[in-house]
Amino acid sequence: MSSFPAITAPKGALALPLAPPPAHVAIIMDGNGRWAKARGLPRIAGHRAGARAVRRAIEAALEHGVRWLTLYAFSSENWRRPREEVSDLTALLRHYLKSEIAELAANGVRLRVIGEAARFSPDIQASLKEAETITAGNARLNLTIALSYGGRDEIIAAARKVAEAVKTGALDPADLDEAAFASRLFTAGMPDPDLIIRTSGERRLSNFLLWQAAYAELIFLNVLWPDFAATHFSEALADYAGRERRFGARPG
Ligand code: IPE
Ligand code: IPE
Ligand code: MG
């Protein structure tokens, strides 16, 4: 496998858009099952190929100088899948953590996990914690993996923290504003995504970053996640660069 791009001198192979890149790109990595089905392979083969595409997405983010990359890997609803697929996916996650963390760490990637990590087995939870600790000093790319993540779950958890703070007297309800609420989400301290990409042709958020997506630009790609390549990332950034973001203000 190729190593990640060097910190200096981006390679000339990609058409880099001239506008500054979005600070935060989030990706709904969808289509592994369909990719496998089209090849007459079991779904796990699609998930394995999807893990290789994760590597390409990280390389592309590094190459373009994107500082925040968030990847939707497993939703809180994905636990409803057949037990065999869930156990294949957790085995793949276990393998991925072992094989990739050292290289991520060496390339200045800081890893964070959002979601209900407590639903995974203790060894996976320990690996996730270890990966977060090992990479905590890195700042080149903030890579966040959404695992057992659901936007509604996240909002409810934040609302519960608000209710508790009010109950103990630590928070006056009149002081609850967007910043105070956002500081209780899993994504506390992270910028909102500027761009959300979903692969596989589906055009929905599937419970991803519901609060944070308020003003995100959305790009839906007709490519199955295992086929995701650096060129798709470049093209999405070029599309994003041509968009006018208004945040509700008068058109410029
Ligand atoms: C995305 O691919 C991976 C996960 C949701 C874990 P899918 O497994 O959803 O693939 P499709 O949508 O069935 O093709
Ligand atoms: C969304 O994909 C979750 C991830 C990509 C991890 P799904 O395949 O689970 O979403 P739906 O069921 O098609 O909405
Ligand atoms: Mg899917």
Descriptive notes:
- This protein is α/β, with parallel strands linked by helices and 252 residues long.
- It has a single domain (21-151, 193-241), classed as Undecaprenyl pyrophosphate synthetase, CATH 3.40.1180.
- The chain has seven helices and six strands, in the order βααβαβαβααββα.
- The chain binds 3-methylbut-3-enyl trihydrogen diphosphate (2 copies) and magnesium ion (MG).
- Residues 28-30, 72-75, 78, 202, 204, 206 line the site of one 3-methylbut-3-enyl trihydrogen diphosphate (IPE).
- One 3-methylbut-3-enyl trihydrogen diphosphate binds at residues 29-34, 74, 78, 89, 200, 225.
How far do the termini sit from each other?
46 Å
Shape annotation: globular
Query: Which small compounds were modeled alongside the protein?
Result: 3-methylbut-3-enyl trihydrogen diphosphate, magnesium ion
Return the string of H and E elements.
EHHEHEHEHHEEH
* Gyration radius over CA: 19 Å
Q: Label the CATH architecture.
A: 3-Layer(aba) Sandwich
CATH fold annotation = Undecaprenyl pyrophosphate synthetase
Structural class: alpha/beta
SS field, number of helical segments: 7
Taken as a percent bin, the fraction of beta residues is 5-15%
In order across it, which strands form the biggest sheet?
Answer: 3-4-2-1-5-6
What is the C-level CATH assignment?
Alpha Beta
Please supply descriptive tags for the structure shown above.
7 helices; binds 3-methylbut-3-enyl trihydrogen diphosphate; binds magnesium ion; Undecaprenyl pyrophosphate synthetase; 252 residues
